[in-house]
Amino acid sequence: MKPPIAARIDHVEQHHGHTLSDPYHWLKDPGYPEVTDQQVLDYLTAENAYFEQEMAPHKHLTDDLFAEIKGRQPLEDESVPYRKGDYLYRWRYEKDAQYRLWQRAPISEPDNWQTFLDEPGLAAEHPYFSLGSLSVSPNGRYLAWSADTNGSERFDLTITDLVTGGQFPEVMSPTVGGPVWAADSTHLFYLKVNDSWRPYQALRHRLGTPVTEDAVVYEEADEGFFVSVGETQSEQWLVIASGDHVTSESYIIPADTPLAEPELISPRRPGHEYHIDHREGWFYIRSNDTHRNFRLVRTPDQAPGEDHWETVIAGSDQNYLTDHLCFKNHLVVCERIDGLDNVRIISADDASHHVAFPEAAYSTDFGANPEYDVDTLRLVYESMVTPVTVYDYDIHARQLTVRKVQDIPSGYDAASYQTLRVMAPGRDGVQIPVSIVHHRKTPLDGSAPAYLYGYGAYGYAMSPGFSPSRLSLLDRGFVYAIAHIRGGDDLGYSWYEDGKLDKRTNTFNDFVDVARYLAQQNYSSRGRIGISGGSAGGELVAAAVNQDPELFGVVVAHVPFVDVLNTMLDTSLPLTPMEWPEWGNPIEDKSAFEHILSYSPYDQLEATAYPPMLVTAGINDPRVTYWEPAKYVAKLRHLKTDDNLLLLKTNMDAGHRGQSGRFDALQEVAEEYAFVLSSFGWN
Length: 683
Fold this sequence. Notes:
This protein is of the alpha+beta class. The strands form nine sheets. The chain has an eight-stranded mixed beta sheet, with helices on both faces. Strands 3, 4, 5, 6 and 7 form a five-stranded antiparallel beta sheet that branches. Strands 8-9-10-11 form a four-stranded antiparallel beta sheet, with no helix packed on it. A hairpin with a 5-residue loop joins β8 and β9 (142-148). α2 crosses α12 (662-679). The two termini are 21 Å apart.
């Protein structure tokens, strides 16, 4: 079977004096999110058949990799329990199960675990199943839970009586995000998404009443803003927030007065982002109003407006405030100092200290901390050589207690691996952090293959974390690297700002410069570097290979955002208006149009040789629609001058995140690694 060749059908648009010719425009089914166009389905099916054909000779390698990767997963597993009200809660995987059981036990009977949600049973009815959220009412009786059964990220929200086991007839759909209970355990706040998958309404549901009677508490008219619902750690306030990537505003409702009108904290203004929590009569607000790395302020909960804000932690060029959490007697702040995660504790007497961690380079974040009146903080910790570790931190004793270390049943010796952090010089003089890990036996003389990963968008930092799957590459002599490029906020908010809008190409340049640095420093060599990224990271690797195709030996682009210009011109798509603050608005701004055109990977493909490439898609993906990777592969097949393998795999029952079962997801990792290894000569 030869590679599928997509038909080329004329489609021309005019924008700002430019003519855009897109002969693969037809791959966008006009009925999306329903995909029924037979010509489209036939093409995707043919590409999937070609993928299976070309990967068949490597089945033994794929099977070996899957066995290795699965062997590093405990067949039975469970989380560290946490307390919420009168119960302990946990999840558990039974032996070989793809999905979790959700369980709880009374505090008075801590070994009497009862399953209150059976994911394996629910998932058995569907080819795809993703649990969206779980929210137990304050009285512990009712469970609000949501599920997506096709990968579209449009969830059905259901309520179960945990005493009787019965399910209420009302189903709230389509929704996203986690619902929030009012203090009376009778009213529930949730989100509604529109046809474009934008959460635009916050609604209030009264238990036992028809969904048609639900009140719209807040509706967002701006198509670029998404709505969310939440509650403060004190559980005294419900929070309705709306925002895009750079601007936000929040409304509050007393949790014990669910029928109250929402009260605005601070009205939106472009570029002002803030996040609120609450403790002991005060709102604590993380805001970038005076410094782009954010400051922390507080204000009386009866006078939340900006006029009353007083600084608790001032903004700083060195300390980037990334999160905060309020307990009754303590304020906890996550901050990034010189690119390294730190956790600061401020007690009621204003005494302040940082949590001391055992390694010099690591990643940490909050774990499950649902209780308010506690003196213990749960943290999740990992590094590139340290498996995920759950700690409980005694705030008074300043002591970390290990509650769980990620189990690697097939065995793992951290001493066999070495990790380091280096700075790669960028072409414009910046120093780009790079996290590297390799087996200690791997020669660093330029002969080793490398696997370079990056993302670089939306201010998301790529933390140097642990991956059991990655060991299959390290044990075969790969050097694995993460490029902390501009576009993420690894080095602060300015690092993010320097990789967006008219500075977007800094992100791609940084990634290419890191790859060149790996070759120059003999971690690998030109043509021996594999690169991988997903979504905006897929755009990254596609743009990088356009810039220097001979530098890379293989490319994996997962659900890649490669048709940037056409997507940003298409206001019918779910995310387009919200994305304009990140990429620019090419409809109204000619300079934004021309800048996006200059780097959009789909538009910049040329008739040249490209390395082997694996591209994935999800037919129900609402974030990066399936036709972006499909069009990209079709155009690349038409233009490329080499015989290197180019594969497109479309999940026909899934969306942006791929397969949903834990072992099905690992099978896709094994396929990716087999493609990378075979491209470098492994059989």
